[in-house]
Amino acid sequence: MKQKESAWHYIPQRVFFEEEALAYPLGQKLVALCRDLGLPTRQIPSHNRVTGLPGDTPSQKYVQAKKTLVVGVKRDLRFPTCRPSADYQFPLMTSCPGHCEYCYLQTTLGQRPYLRVYVNVEEMLDQAATYIAKKAPEPTTFEVASSGDPLSVEHLTGSLFKTIEFFGDQEFGRLRFVTKFTGVEPLLKARHKGHTRFRFSLNSERVLRDFEHRTPPVAERIAAAAQVARAGYPLGFIIAPIMVYPGWEDDYLRLFDQLKKELASLQPLSPPVTFELIQHRFTARAKKVILERFPESRLDMDEEKRKFKYGKYGMGKYVYPDETARSMKDLLQTALLERFPDAEVEYFT
Ligand code: SF4
């Protein structure tokens, strides 16, 4: 299989395989792909233990990890909960080729920022079917982007297409995912039957420029969103992480104007377009990891200017003070509903 090159078409520099993964058709397909592309490969005992990647400093190791694809078998088929966006996570893969400084995966993936795809997709889908059956006729929603960006590797695996078609056949199952990537073409023909909501992550030009390295520009994300809306997918946008800096209000309103203009010919969408609004937050651990990987980072992580919000197990995170968060929510929600009167703003957090 020859891969079409494009600016956002991820091709790893090395690929590691768990031995067991080679017994699955997707594992074999990826072996053949590596052979075709001349990519170096190696067998590893576990997709959780990848050692010997090049790089001396944390930032060099991070860059090299992102150039590494690991192919494994997902053994734990218990899907964690995924509030507020869905009932359960459906982790087809982990990580992505992007280098967003604020990414929460900096900590949740810890020492495993490499890209990892699972080959036992059918087993995962069978398990999803049992979760759906337990709750039927109530719908059960799965989030496929909770641990990475599945669209960023779709040209390699085809797993998202398969998953979307599976959910198309599920009367009571719904799928959703969020992406910053734009390679939507292979998914336009999938029989989704409106059961998958495609969401794109957007942010102000300044946040993109300063913090979302190696990800497609806003205009390309919006163009891809229009393509999937034309293919009949329910559409949504996640505005995140919303950051406060001099002029932030105008920047976000400009983004919403751009979105309105680009989607004008598709309005009103049915079902209505959704928005999820997430303010920037960080934990003490995230700050440490981010500053190791991005020593020059300009991310505002000044604890003095934030409110500490206690979380589970005594862990907590720094969010904007209540007054700032409230004005952020009011301004953005009002601005969105002015421009998209039929939209549903699902939550602000
Ligand atoms: Fe994280 Fe998404 Fe950026 Fe990838 S594209 S680094 S998953 S925020």
Task: Tag the structure with descriptive keywords.
349 residues, alpha/beta, pyruvate-formate lyase- activating enzyme, 8-stranded mixed β-sheet, 5-stranded mixed β-sheet, 17 strands, binds iron/sulfur cluster, Spore photoproduct lyase, SPL_Clostridia, rSAM, S-adenosyl-L-methionine binding
Annotate the secondary structure layout.
Elements: E1 14-18, H1 25-37, E2 41-44, H2 58-66, E3 68-72, E4 81-82, E5 86-89, E6 93-94, E7 99-100, H3 105-108, E8 115-118, H4 121-135, E9 140-143, H5 154-157, H6 159-168, E10 173-179, E11 196-202, H7 205-211, E12 212-213, H8 218-230, E13 235-242, H9 248-263, E14 274-279, H10 284-293, E15 307-310, E16 316-319, H11 322-339, E17 344-348
Parallel strand pairs: 1-2, 1-3, 3-8, 5-9, 9-10, 10-11, 11-13, 13-14, 14-17
Antiparallel strand pairs: 4-5, 6-8, 7-12, 15-16
Bound molecules: iron/sulfur cluster (SF4).
Detailed description of the structure:
- Residues 80-312 form the Radical SAM core domain.
- This is Spore photoproduct lyase.
- Keywords: Lyase.
- InterPro entries: rSAM, rSAM_sf, SPL, SPL_Clostridia, SPL_firmicutes.
- The protein is α/β, with parallel strands linked by helices.
- It has one domain: pyruvate-formate lyase- activating enzyme.
- It has eleven helices and 17 strands.
- Helix 1 links the parallel strand 1 and strand 2 (41-44).
- The model is unreliable at 1-5 (pLDDT under 50).
